């Protein structure tokens, strides 16, 4: 009760800060920058990089010195982004989940070094999602520590594999390779151990105690009053992400205000015992990869040895003249986020954007607002907006009229269950497609079998057998042709 009361006071202070804060912001080197200068910087960068909206929070000595939102949450309706606009946290979800996991470690319910299969009532390959591992006994060596430090050996996502199957690529624990699959496996374990669904656990043990009142692992009706649409690199609306099922790797929905509270809790330890916080923010594996993505690339480098680039438990780590730094990225279609904290100084910055162009301003924002020139921008793949090659022009499509009876033949569900389900619906004179809980995309016909998305570069072709029954669609994505079977 006392912890909740304390965080409610912080929440009230945050709201007050956002409403009337005009004091200069203190940077890492002790210099200051005025709010007017930050406003001008954000306005200039967002216009130049074509970033739709951005929320920013800046900390010094553990205190929130700036909390502001810029730009739009809805271009079509000209609605401004606010500090309470619900946005996709994307992979910020992973560090919030890690905070929960470390609480369970404190409570003695989770051992970081116990093989996770031992927590399950039946062998891991007997769960349909993990049947692909039946012939690889290495799964028995995977621990929670490996899953949180991205050393399990899994690809980022199985759908990135040529055959869309889950496999272990290297000896678990031996090297770093970022993996959402690993986080999802730990979600299964934690839900099994606690006998509670993840969204309930996160509300009870993380969001409510930290007064994160507009944060959830699934979409809530209360978000309808103020939420942001995501926008791609061309400024096309992708809509909001209205997750129906919790995913520890990426379904969290939050606001810049709420996530600022979360980062402030991590800075101070929050509900974690000092030992648990120290483990979470201590190196588990050195990082020698040339780039963070693609995750399984074997290209290595010594370029980041001087900063001791490494990974803790869900947080990236490196060292500077100011000491240890922990950081986390968030990346989804139409959403780009970044958080960084200099641990000793309790200084840092969070930026959340609803734009596929958001990463292009990260370097300038960090250097101008925080005087942070240390972030491994190249390793993370954050090319500054003014260094990007010219954006290729959008492909021009020509609509054709297709009989409604033909469109009705394509209606149904396609995919690779249980992970990827594409639902095709009739929308008058055209179709729409929705992948899992993501926003649906309108599909316009270019021929009786070929369709294109109005909000992405994806195109697709429907296929039928000799009797005329539609059996599959071919997705044409990033130069690849991906067959997807019809499942009903």
Integer tally of domains: 2
Which structural category fits the helices and strands? Answer: alpha+beta
The top level CATH class name of the largest domain: Alpha Beta
Low-confidence stretches: 1-16
Q: Evaluate the radius of gyration.
A: 23 Å
* Terminal residue distance: 50 Å
Second-tier CATH architecture of the largest domain? 3-Layer(aba) Sandwich
What's the average pLDDT? 94
Strand content: 15-25%
Task: Walk me through this protein's architecture.
The protein has 488 residues and is α+β, with helices and mostly antiparallel strands. It has two domains: 2-106 and 183-387, Beta-lactamase (3-Layer(aba) Sandwich), CATH 3.40.710; 404-485, Lipocalin, CATH 2.40.128. The protein has helices at 2-20, 35-49, 92-106, 144-148, 180-194, 198-207, 256-268, 274-280, 362-370, 377-380, 404-410, and strands spanning 25-26, 32-33, 53-60, 63-74, 79-80, 87-88, 230-231, 237-239, 253-254, 285-286, 310-311, 316-320, 323-332, 335-342, 347-353, 412-416, 420-427, 430-435, 441-445, 450-453, 459-464, 470-477, 480-485. Strands 5-4-3-15-14-13-12-11-10 form a nine-stranded antiparallel β-sheet, sandwiched between helices. An eight-stranded antiparallel β-sheet has the order 16-17-18-19-20-21-22-23. The protein has a two-stranded antiparallel sheet with strand order 1-2. The chain is globular, with a radius of gyration of 23 Å.
Strand and helix layout:
Layout: H1 2-20, E1 25-26, E2 32-33, H2 35-49, E3 53-60, E4 63-74, E5 79-80, E6 87-88, H3 92-106, H4 144-148, H5 180-194, H6 198-207, E7 230-231, E8 237-239, E9 253-254, H7 256-268, H8 274-280, E10 285-286, E11 310-311, E12 316-320, E13 323-332, E14 335-342, E15 347-353, H9 362-370, H10 377-380, H11 404-410, E16 412-416, E17 420-427, E18 430-435, E19 441-445, E20 450-453, E21 459-464, E22 470-477, E23 480-485
Antiparallel strand pairs: 1-2, 3-4, 3-15, 4-5, 6-9, 7-8, 10-11, 11-12, 12-13, 13-14, 14-15, 16-17, 17-18, 18-19, 19-20, 20-21, 21-22, 22-23
Helix pairs in contact: 2-9, 3-6
């Amino acid at each position: 009760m006392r912890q909740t009361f304390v965080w409610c006071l912080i929440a009230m202070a945050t709201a007050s800060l956002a409403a009337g804060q005009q004091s200069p912001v203190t940077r890492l080197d002790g210099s200051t920058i005025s709010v007017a200068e930050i406003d001008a910087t954000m306005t200039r960068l967002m216009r130049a990089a074509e970033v739709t909206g951005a929320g920013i929070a800046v900390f010094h000595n553990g205190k929130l010195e700036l909390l502001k939102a810029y730009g739009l949450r809805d271009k079509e309706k000209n609605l401004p982004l606010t500090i309470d606009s619900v946005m996709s946290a994307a992979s910020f979800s992973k560090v919030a989940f890690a905070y929960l996991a470390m609480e369970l470690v404190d409570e003695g319910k989770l051992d970081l070094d116990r093989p996770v299969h031992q927590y399950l009532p039946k062998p891991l390959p007997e769960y349909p999602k993990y049947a692909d591992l039946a012939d690889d006994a290495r799964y028995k060596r995977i621990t929670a520590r490996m899953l949180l430090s991205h050393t399990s050996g899994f690809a980022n996502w199985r759908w990135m594999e040529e055959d869309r199957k889950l496999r272990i690529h290297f000896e678990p624990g031996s090297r770093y390779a970022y993996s959402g699959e690993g986080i999802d496996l730990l979600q299964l374990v934690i839900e099994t151990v606690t006998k509670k669904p993840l969204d309930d656990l996160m509300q009870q043990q993380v969001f409510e105690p930290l007064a994160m009142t507009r944060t959830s692992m699934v979409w809530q009706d209360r978000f309808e009053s103020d939420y942001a649409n995501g926008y791609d690199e061309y400024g096309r609306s992708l809509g909001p992400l209205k997750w129906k099922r919790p995913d520890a790797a990426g379904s969290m929905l939050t606001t810049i205000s709420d996530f600022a509270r979360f980062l402030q809790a991590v800075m101070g330890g929050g509900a974690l015992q000092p030992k648990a916080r120290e483990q979470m923010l201590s190196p588990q594996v050195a990082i020698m990869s040339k780039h963070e993505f693609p995750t399984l690339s074997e290209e290595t480098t010594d370029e980041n040895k001087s900063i001791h680039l490494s990974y803790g438990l869900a947080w990236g780590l490196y060292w500077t003249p100011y000491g240890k730094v922990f950081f986390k990225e968030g990346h989804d279609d139409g959403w780009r986020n970044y958080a960084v904290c200099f641990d000793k100084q309790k200084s840092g910055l969070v930026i959340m954007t609803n734009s596929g162009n958001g990463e292009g301003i990260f370097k300038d924002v960090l250097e101008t607002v925080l005087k942070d020139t240390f972030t491994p921008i190249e390793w993370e793949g954050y090319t500054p907006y003014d260094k990007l090659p010219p954006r290729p022009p959008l492909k021009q499509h020509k609509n054709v009229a297709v009989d409604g009876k033909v469109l009705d033949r394509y209606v149904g569900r396609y995919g690779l269950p249980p992970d990827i389900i594409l639902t095709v619906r009739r929308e008058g004179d055209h179709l729409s497609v929705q992948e899992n809980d993501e926003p649906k995309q309108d599909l316009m016909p270019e021929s009786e079998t070929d369709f294109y998305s109005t909000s992405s570069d994806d195109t697709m072709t429907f296929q039928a057998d000799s009797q005329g029954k539609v059996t599959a669609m071919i997705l044409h994505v990033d130069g690849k042709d991906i067959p997807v079977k019809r499942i009903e």
